[in-house]
Specification:
The structure is a homodimer.
Chain A (H helix, E strand, L loop, with lengths): L5 H22 L3 H8 L58 E7 L1 H18 L4 E7 L1 H14 L4 E7 H8 L9 H5 L4 H4 L6 E5 L3 E3 L3 H5 L11 E5 L23 E9 H6 L2 H15 L7 H11 L4 E4 L5 E2 L7 H4 L7 E3 L13 H12 L21 H10 L7 H8 L4 E2 L15 E8 L5 H8 L4 E7 L1 H13 L1 H5 L3 E7 L7 H10 L5 E4 L4 E3 L3 H11 L8 E5 L1 E3 L11 H10 L3 E2 L14 H6 L4 E3 L8 E5 L15 H11 L3 E4 L5 E3 L6 H8 L1 H22 L4 H7 L7
Parallel strand pairs in A: 1-2, 1-4, 2-3, 6-8, 9-10, 12-13, 12-15, 13-14, 17-22, 18-23
Antiparallel strand pairs in A: 4-7, 5-10, 6-7, 11-14, 15-21, 16-23, 17-21, 18-19, 20-22
Helix pairs in contact in A: 3-4, 10-11
Chain lengths: 719, 719
C-alpha cells in the first residue's frame, strides 16, 4: 500500500492525516457515511463505504467484504464526486500474473478452455498458467496451448498422480472428488520461487481483467496469506436442514472457487502441517468433507482468522442452489467473476440465470483465434513456433493469385483432441482405427458410420468454437453416438477460406491408437463386416512385421440417396450389374481407382497385388506409422493422390482385399469442389502445388521418383 | 469538475492547494515528472501526467489530449501509488445516455450493427440511439431493433432527406458524401429538450463502457460545447504532399469520428449560423471540403478555440493511412474506441492491424442474442412485445416432452432484412418473386438457382452472426451472385435447436415486393422458362383481379446427383419414361403431390383445376397477400401441408400449369429429418401441433373446415 522509500512514506502518512482533516472539515466528521451516501449507492449493514483494506470484525465476519458491499475498487460511482479518492490497488502493468487450476478429464478440460478464454479476453498482462492435471487433461491441453499460440501466455503442467497421496486419506463427499482437495497442496506442489498465485476452479467465468484481482494482494496485511470471498449461502450456518452439520467456519465461511494465495508466507507458516492437523482433528468428529478443500480451508481459518483477507463479493459471485448472491450483484456496479458452483451448473434455477448464462456462452462460443493478440504495452517473446510462421507469412505476396492457398497451408489451427470422453482401445496387435475428417455439414453421417464400423475411430472435425458446441449437443442428443466410447473426436478450429483437408487427416491419423489405420472419407460407409475382415487379413498377411503393404479397400458409389446397403460381396456384384451401384467416380474420373482392377476383384478369392499408376487414390489400410499427408494440399484436389504416391515411393505393396468394400453416398457438392470447378485460378494454384510436391519427391527419393514426373507430363484434370 | 455547493467547493480548493504542497514536499516540486515516473509509464513531450482538465496551449494544440497522453482517467497504473488520486469523472449509474449516428444504405447498416454490438457488450446504462437514416437503413434497422428486443435500449429515427437541404450546398470530396456533413445539423435535428449527445461514425468500434465517455462531459468548462480527440495524422499540418491545402485547424486539428456535443449550449450559441458563416467564407478560397464535416468543425474551432474540450486520444484511435495512433495506444494502458477511418477499412496496412481487426471481428461475429441482457442495477421497462413472450415462455413446462417445440415457436428471432445491397424490382402488374429459405448447408444452391430464375427473389437465411459473415464473403466471391441486384437476402439469426421453417418462410414472404410470389424450396431448380411462363399465365388467367387462385407448379425429383437439366416439358416426359426422373417423393410419400394428377399433366395443353386432398403440399404461385405460414410448425414435417389447407379453406382455386415444372435435387438428409425419423417424441409433438392447428382451423372457418378433420381421422405418417 505505502510507497517505498522513507520520504514518500512520510508524505503518504502526512497526506492520510490531511485527508482525514479535510474529510472532517468537509463532511462534519462522518467521513464513512458521507462518502458512502454521496456515492449514490445504498450500502448494507456492517459494510465500510470507503475501506482502505477490509477488516475482520470481532465475530469474524469479513465486514469489508460483506456480500452486499460490491467491489470498492470498482465502485467508481461511489467515489468520484469526493475530491480525493482512496487509492484503488495499483494495476501491475506488464507484471507476470500466475494462475493455478486443477483439471482432470475430458469435460473439465473443455470447461478450463472456456475459463481461459474469458481470462484472456480481458487480460492486459502476461500470464503463467500452472495446470495440475491427469494424463488425459494434459494430453488435451498441451496440444491445445501449443497450437493456440497466444502471445504472453506460459503454461506449466503438474502431475495430479504425484499429489494424490497427500490428500487421498481424506474422506470426501463432494462431486469434485479428490481433485477439489488438490488445492490444499499447491504451496508444496508449485515451484518454491513462486510467491503469489491466483487459484481458480474450472467452473468460474471472468467478466473483467484478472489484473484487478491480482492487485488485491496489495490489500494483504503482513499476517494475511489467503484471499477469499465470503460464501454466498447459509451452508456453514448449519441451518439448511435438520441435523445438517457443516464443518466449522467463520460466520458464513468462505468459498474457495477463487483464491489468492501468498505461497511464500504459507510455506513459512508451515501450511502443510497446519491444514493436516485441523483436518485430522475435525475428522475425529465429522465423517468426511462435504465441500472438499473448502471445508478444510474454512476450518483452518476459523482457528486462525488472521490468515484471511476477505475479498469483495463481486470476485466470486456464486450461483449455487441456495445462493444469496443477488445481495452482491444487485448492488455492485460491476461483476468480476461468476462461479457456477451448483452441481446443476448452467441448468441451475435462478431469477437472473439468463444473464449469467449469456456471459458464459459469450466465451464458450468465442472464436479463440481472436485471442492470439499481442500485448503492445508489454513486449514479450512470441510463442514457440510463432516466429517462423509469421516470417513465412510475411514472405507471401498478397498480389499472388495463389496467396490464399499459400496462406492457408501456413495457418496453424488450434487443435482440441478428444473433445468428448473417450476410452483408448485395449492394445491388440491387429486392431484398426477408421480415420476420417469432416465439417458441420456432414454430422448426419456419424450415426450411420457408427452402425457400419464397430471398431475404434479417430475423426477430425473442422469447426468454429460455436459449432463445436452444436456438435456437442448433437452427440448428446444421439443415443447411437453417446453409447460409443471408442470414437475419438478431435476438433480443429476453423481459420481461413480453404478446407485444410490434409492437415485434418494428419490430426486424426496422429491420434489413432491402434497399430493399423483405415484411411477413409466421411461420405463412405464400409461393409458391415469390414472391421472384422481387416483384422483377419492383417493377421493372415503378417502386415507390418514381415511385409510393408497397404491393403486396398475397393470403393464403390451409389447415385441414389435412398439405398439399401449390400450385406455381402455377392450383393455388391448384383447391384453393379443392375446399375444401381458403380465403381467409385466411374463417370467423371475412372483413373482414380482403375488400378484396383475391379474386373479381377469380381473373381478374386485371395488378396492380389496391383501396381501404382498416375492419379491412383484408393482407400487403404496401413500401419499407423505410415507417411503423413502433405499439408500443402488444401481445399479440393489431389490430396490423396499425393499420399498414395508417397506410399509407392516408400515401396509399400498395394494389396487389394477380395471381400472388402466401401460405398460412397451421394451429397450436394461441397463449396470447395464448386470453387474448383468454377475457378481457373484455383486449378492453376493446385497445379503449382503439384509441381512443388513433385520437386520435393524427386529430392527425397531421387531416381526412384522419376516415374512420377514422367507420369505427370501429359496434363489432365486432377482428381 | 468542482463539486456543487459552496462548502464542498471550499474544501476542494483547499485540497488542491494541499496536494500541490505535498507534491512539492514529496518530490521537490517537479510534480509532473515524479507522478509520471512513479506511475511506471514513460510519457511523451508536451503531455500532462496528472491533468485535471486538459488545456489548450498557446499554439492551440490540445496538450492535455496530445496523442501520446493515453487516457488520464483510465491510467490507473500511473496513479495508484500516489496517495491521492485526482477524481475520475463519475460514471453516471443508470443515467440514460444518448447516442446519435448517421447511417444510410445496406452496407452502413451492417457496420452500424457491429458498432452497436460493441457498445452494448460493455454498457451498463440505458441507451437511447438517435439514428439519422435514409429509407433503406430505416427499413432494415427498425425491423432489426424491433426483433432484437434488447432491454433498456430506445431507438429514434430521423429522416436524412429532410436534413439534406441544409448541407447539400457544400461541395464535398469525402467518400462519406453528404452523410458525413449531416453531423453539423444535429443540434437542430435532434429533439430540442436533448441537452447532450455522443455522436459516432459507423466505422468505430468500442472496447470499453460508453458511460466512461459520457462521463467526460463533466470535464467541460462553461464555455466548452464540443468534445473531440486530436486528429492522429499530419493532414491538417498541410505537409503531406506538395500543394496539399487542407482546411484551417488548430495544430493537427480534431477528428470527428467520436464527438461529445452539448446541444443545449450549441443551440444557445447559434451554432447553425456559426458553422454556415465559416464554411461559406472558407469556400471562397477552397474548392470543397475534403473530409466533410471534419473540415468545417475544425475551421470553426480554429476561430473559437474555447469551444472545444480535447478528449484523451484513446477515445478515438484512428487507423487512417498515415496514422500516428501508435503514439497513443502504445502508451495507453487501455484502448477505448477504435476508428477505421481509412477508406481501406479493415484492409488498411498497419503494424498492429491484426490486433485491431481481432477486436472488430469479436463484435462482427458476436452472437447478438447474448446482448438481450437486462441491467440489474437499473430497472427499466421491458422492450415492446418482450413481456408477452416472457409470460408465454414462463407458462411452459420444462418437463413436457414437447417443451423444445413450444419454446422454439415462441422464440423471437432477430431479423436483418436486405442484408446485402438490393434494388427493389420496378413495379410490374404480373411480376413474381421466388420465395424460399435456407441455412448455411445449402449456400451452394444459390448460384444454380440464380441461373434458373432471372426474376426477383426473396430469400430468408437462418444463420449465426458469424455465419452471416461467411455468407457475405461467399456472395462477394461469386461472380454470378454479386452480379444480381434483384435478390434480397434476409438474415434470421439462429436461436434454439429446431429449424423455424415457417417463420423463415413468412419473413421472406413479407419482404417480397412484387404482386405475386412463387413459394418454393431451396433444393428445387425451376425450369429455365418458368419465370416468363408464370408472368404470362398470371396475365392470361387474370389472377388476383378476377379470380382467387393458386397456380400449381408440378414438382419432380432426380435421385442422380449428376443430372442434365431438361429444357422443355418434352424432355421431362422423356426422363420420366427413362426412369431418371420421378414425380416428387414418388417413393416415400406420393400423397404429398398425387392431387396434381401427373397423368393429366402429361397431356394438358391448358391450366386445369384440381381438388384439395389430405396431405397435399404442391409448390404454388399466389398473390403476395396470401395467408401466412403457421409458425407453430418448426423443424421437419407438415409445414407446407397446413398452408395449402388454409389456402383451400379460403377457397383458392388450385390450377395446375401445363408447361411449368420444378425439379428437386438430391442432398444428404437434413438434421431435422434425421431427428424426425429417429425420434418418436418428435413425431408425437408434431401430432400435437397438428391437432392444435385443426382446432384453430375449425374455429376460424367453422363447418367448412370439417372436411380437414375427417380427412385427418385415419392416422398416417405426416409429410
Amino acid at each position: 500500500m505505502l510507497p517505498r522509500g522513507r520520504p514518500r512514506a512520510l508524505g503518504a502518512a502526512a497526506l492520510l492525516l490531511l485527508l482525514l482533516l479535510i474529510g472532517f472539515f468537509l463532511f462534519g466528521g462522518d467521513v464513512e457515511c458521507e462518502l458512502g451516501e454521496r456515492g449514490g449507492e445504498r450500502r448494507g449493514p456492517g459494510s465500510l463505504p470507503c475501506p482502505l483494506t477490509p477488516r475482520v470484525s470481532a465475530d469474524g465476519r469479513p465486514r469489508g467484504a460483506a456480500a452486499v458491499d460490491g467491489d470498492p475498487s470498482a465502485d467508481r460511482g461511489g467515489r468520484n464526486r469526493s475530491d480525493c479518492v482512496p487509492p484503488r490497488p495499483p494495476l501491475p502493468k506488464c507484471e507476470l500474473l500466475h494462475v493455478a487450476i486443477v483439471c482432470a478429464g475430458h469435460n473439465s478440460s473443455r470447461d478450463l478452455v472456456t475459463l481461459v478464454k474469458s481470462v484472456l479476453f480481458y487480460r492486459k498482462n502476461p500470464l503463467h498458467f500452472h495446470l495440475v492435471t491427469d494424463a488425459m487433461a494434459r494430453n488435451i491441453l498441451e496440444m491445445l496451448f501449443h497450437t493456440w499460440m497466444v502471445p504472453a501466455v506460459r503454461v506449466s503442467f503438474y502431475d495430479v498422480e504425484e499429489l494424490k497421496p497427500q490428500v487421498s486419506w481424506i474422506p470426501n463427499k463432494h462431486y469434485s472428488g479428490l481433485y477439489g482437495l488438490m488445492k490444499l497442496v499447491l504451496p508444496a506442489a508449485l515451484p518454491p520461487e513462486l510467491a503469489r498465485v491466483i487459484v481458480l476452479d474450472t467452473d468460474v467465468t471472468f467478466a473483467s481483467d484478472i489484473a484487478e484481482l491480482w492487485a488485491l494482494f496489495a490489500h494483504f496485511s503482513d499476517e494475511q496469506v489467503i484471499g477469499l470471498v465470503e460464501n454466498q449461502s447459509d451452508w456453514y450456518l448449519g441451518n439448511l436442514w435438520r441435523n445438517h452439520r457443516p464443518w466449522p467456519a467463520l460466520g458464513r465461511g468462505f468459498n474457495t472457487g477463487v483464491i489468492l494465495l501468498r505461497l511464500d508466507r504459507l510455506r513459512q507458516a508451515g501450511w502443510g502441517q497446519m491444514w493436516t492437523l485441523t483436518a485430522t482433528r475435525e475428522l475425529l468428529t465429522l465423517p468426511a468433507t462435504s465441500l472438499a478443500d473448502q471445508d478444510i480451508f474454512n476450518a483452518v481459518i476459523k482457528e486462525h482468522p488472521g490468515l484471511v483477507q476477505p475479498l469483495p463479493c463481486v470476485w466470486n459471485v456464486q450461483l449455487s442452489d441456495h445462493t444469496l448472491a443477488e445481495r452482491c450483484y444487485s448492488e455492485a456496479s460491476d461483476l468480476k467473476v461468476i462461479h457456477w458452483n451448483s452441481p446443476k451448473k448452467l441448468r441451475v434455477k435462478n431469477k437472473h440465470v439468463e444473464y449469467f448464462r449469456n456471459l458464459y456462452l459469450t466465451f464458450l462460443e468465442y472464436d479463440g483465434n481472436l485471442l492470439r493478440r499481442e500485448l503492445f504495452g508489454c513486449p514479450s517473446p512470441p510463442p514457440a513456433g510463432a516466429e517462423q510462421v509469421q516470417w513465412a507469412l510475411a514472405q507471401l505476396d498478397e498480389e499472388d493469385a495463389c496467396f490464399e492457398f499459400r496462406q492457408q497451408r501456413l495457418t496453424v489451427h488450434r487443435v482440441h483432441v478428444t473433445f468428448l470422453p473417450h476410452e483408448p482401445p485395449p492394445p491388440r496387435p491387429h486392431d484398426v482405427t477408421l480415420v476420417a475428417q469432416l465439417s458441420m455439414d456432414r454430422l448426419q453421417m456419424l450415426e450411420a458410420l457408427c452402425r457400419h464400423w464397430p471398431g475404434p475411430m479417430s475423426l477430425a472435425l473442422y469447426l468454429t468454437d460455436a459449432e463445436a458446441q452444436q456438435f456437442l449437443r448433437f452427440v448428446e442428443a444421439s443415443a447411437v453416438l453417446s453409447a460409443r466410447q471408442n470414437v475419438a473426436y478431435h476438433v480443429v478450429y476453423r481459420e481461413g477460406p480453404l478446407y485444410p483437408v490434409n492437415q485434418l487427416r494428419n490430426v486424426a491419423l496422429a491420434q489413432a491408437l491402434t497399430p493399423y489405420v483405415f484411411l477413409s472419407d466421411i461420405d463412405f460407409l464400409p461393409a458391415y463386416s469390414l472391421y472384422d475382415d481387416l483384422r483377419a487379413s492383417i493377421e493372415q498377411l503378417k502386415l507390418g512385421s514381415e511385409r510393408r503393404a497397404a491393403l486396398v479397400v475397393p470403393a464403390f458409389e451409389t447415385l441414389h440417396y435412398r439405398f439399401s446397403f449390400p450385406s455381402s460381396k455377392a450383393e455388391v456384384l448384383a447391384l453393379l450389374d443392375s446399375g444401381s451401384l458403380y465403381t467409385f467416380r466411374y463417370h467423371e474420373w475412372p483413373r482414380g481407382h482403375a488400378p484396383t482392377d475391379y474386373a479381377r476383384w469380381r473373381e478374386a478369392q485371395t488378396p492380389y497385388r496391383v501396381q501404382w499408376a498416375a492419379d491412383y487414390e484408393p482407400y487403404v489400410v496401413v500401419p499407423r506409422d505410415c507417411p503423413r499427408y502433405d499439408p500443402r494440399f488444401v481445399g479440393f484436389g489431389w490430396n490423396k493422390v499425393a499420399h498414395i504416391m508417397e506410399l509407392d515411393a516408400q515401396e509399400y505393396e498395394l494389396l487389394v482385399l477380395p471381400e472388402a468394400f466401401t460405398i460412397h453416398l451421394p451429397h450436394g457438392p461441397s463449396l470447395d469442389i464448386s470453387r474448383f470447378r468454377s475457378s481457373p485460378t484455383y486449378r492453376d494454384c493446385l497445379q503449382a502445388v503439384k509441381d512443388e510436391f513433385h520437386q520435393d519427391l524427386s529430392r527425397r527419393y531421387g531416381a526412384a521418383a522419376l516415374k512420377y514426373l514422367t507420369a505427370l507430363q501429359q496434363p489432365r484434370r486432377p482428381a
